[in-house]
Structure formats: structure tokens, C-alpha cells
Design goal:
Aspartate Aminotransferase, domain 2, binds pyridoxal-5'-phosphate
Length: about 240
Amino acid sequence: MAPQWTGEYTRNRGEPNLSKGLARYMEKYWFGGIPVDWEGVCIQNGCVSSMEGLVHLLSNPGDTVIVPGPCYSVFVVDWWVRCQTRLEAAHTSVETNFEPTLESLEDAYNRAVAGGSRVKAIALIQPNNPTGRMLSKRCLEMCLKWAYEKGIHIISDEIYAISIFEGNQMISMAGIWHELLDQKKDDAHMMHFLKNYCHITGGLAKDFGLSGFRIGICYTYNEEVRAAFSRIFGYLL
Ligand SMILES: Cc1ncc(COP(=O)(O)O)c(C=O)c1O
């Protein structure tokens, strides 16, 4: 075995000690005590790369990912340039408390389909850039149920998870996701969805002010996505 100082290649989806450390941080400060399987903590060079990686894996050119809008505008360009994946906004406003409604999701879905595109995922960003909005439990449950019914993936970008004002609490999608993993053990179809179609992203750029370190996270139970982060994107780290 080569001595450690040779700087040999490490685990391709992130150095194990880093993934383990991040898993502990996620459990304690981000997921509110939910145990995190460090093997599922896939590291990329920034959250934008984690998101782009997921979009690349989950969609084909011409497909659509729905995002509640207004949203972080870089995703529009980012997903298009390499993946040719479209971003369709589910409109939100002051009236809806900047939360997507079932109608806005259906509208976005129908617009994409009318344009000849297949919808592959919904991506939530919370706390949101630019509105700062954190989603209610009811809204998160609605989005997850909607993704399940449509048979599409759900991604929750929670890169601002702990950058919140005192007295507030962000409800991570991890909570709802794991609640269902506990409750729906007998529902094989739902379990398949929860184990394969749900992914959370984040990183150190915002909460730690470490944007230059380029540490992005994708947390998933999907074995194919984990493997792809090792095999397809490993050398981008
Ligand atoms: C919602 C959201 N995700 C991701 C990023 C970028 O994260 P990173 O610097 O880790 O690539 C930003 C940056 O502004 C953002 O607003």
C-alpha cells in the first residue's frame, strides 16, 4: 500500500474523512438530528456543480426541471450550457408568500409538456435566493407528494440552511423525507421513490463563507447517482 504522503487518488466522490465530517455537521446543524449516511454524501466542486451534476444525470437534452421562481438565475444558464436542460419557473408571488402552489406547479408542468419537453425533476431552493423564503412543512409535503405522483425527481438546494435570522427555523426536506421513510415501510412504490428520487444539495460557500474552497454536497440514497458522482464527475474534484 502506498504511504499516505504520496497523494494518491482518494474516494472519487470525496475524501472519506471530509464526507464523514460533513455528515456529522448535516445531522446536527442542518437536518435537525436525522442520521446521515456518510456514504451518501457526494462532494463536488461547489453546489452549482452538485446541481449541474444531478441535472446532467437525471435529464436528457430538451428535458425540463421545474423551479419555483424567482430563483437563482445562474441555474438557467448552467443547466442549459452542458446539459441542454430547460428550467421552467413555477411562479410565486407575495400573494402566495413566495411559495409554489399546486396550480403553479401544474402550470409549469403543462407549459413544458406543451412545448414538447419531458419534465424530469422539481428543484426547490430554500432558503430561497433571491427572496429568502423558507418553505412551510405543508408546502414541502405538497411538493414531495406532487413529485411522487408525477414520477419525477425532487431536489432541494439548501445551501443557505443555517444562514437564517434568530428565532426562525428552516424545515429541511430531510425531515419530511425521513418521516415518510419511517412511515411508509410497507408501501414499496413510495419507498422506491424515497430511496431513488429525492436528493438534497448544499455546501460551504454560504453558511461558512468558504466559497473559494469549492465544497458542494449532494446527499442521496440513489446508488446509481452515488456511483455516477464517483465515476463521471470524480475527476472534476
Ligand atoms: C441557491 C444557490 N445555490 C448554489 C449557489 C452556489 O454555490 P457554490 O458556490 O457552492 O457553487 C448559490 C450562489 O449564489 C445559490 O444562490
